[in-house]
Write a structure and sequence with these properties.
Structural class: mainly alpha
Largest sheet: 3 strands, mixed
Number of helices: 12
Helix content: 40-55%
Distance between the termini: 44 Å
Number of domains: 2
Radius of gyration: 25 Å
Shape: elongated
Strand content: 5-15%
Amino acid sequence: MSELRDWPVKRLGRDQIRRDSVDLRKQLGIHSLKRFNFLEILRNRVPYLGGNFTGLQVIVRPVADLSGHPAVTHFPKRQGARIFITKDLEEGAQKEHALSQRILMHEFGHVRYHDQAPKAYLAGNFEAISYIEDNETSAEWQADEAQLSFAAPDQFIKQYPDPRTLAKECNLTFEDAKKAIDIFSITVKNRSEHPAYTAFKRDLFIASKNENSELPPEIEGQWLALDHAAGRDPFYYRLCPKGFLIAKEEYQKMTPCGWRFSHGIIEAYFNMQQ
């Protein structure tokens, strides 16, 4: 088997890839599905998403044409992407074998992110390629992340935190299930330890004990500038810029926390975590 080479691409982080995967699952109508036939989806639904997926075809080729690899992706000029697969891979995917699905989702990641990049050419066809700075600029890392986040979204990892159960329920290899859970655990840990989030919890505790009924003059001015809420006393209730109803007593607790009022209540909370 010839060696497949990695190559440097535009930087793309894990969080963005995971958000994209959630959106793609929604667009394909499988957001809530744990198991599905990805070959059928790849052939019959994905080409209608547009963008890099327009004209996508999955074509069976002899093993010799792929130099022993189960799947290879190409972008012919002025045509849609072509994912060439072996007959064995097709048969495995038709039976929804976990490894076959994994390989197809990996190629799906290349199509999603690497249009016109020199993907999956055999090493013998490569000229020297540039140094890859880190994972986020690696084409193969990005395709692996796309595969894993598409196969195992956070919602199912929360539901099945044991790798064997997650693998069974979502049709994953045990290795992928364990990796997905490990990544999710690290992500959650980093969120909970984020300095801004810690500050938010501290300030909210202080604000909850704030008995001061008066707002500083500049904050009072911002409050008075907000739109009135129909049928509500404007002294006690206003509409924030996002259109949410907010009580003055809630606003008094928000301002000591350093929240940017222009973001609205919910958005301010998440902005503090980022």
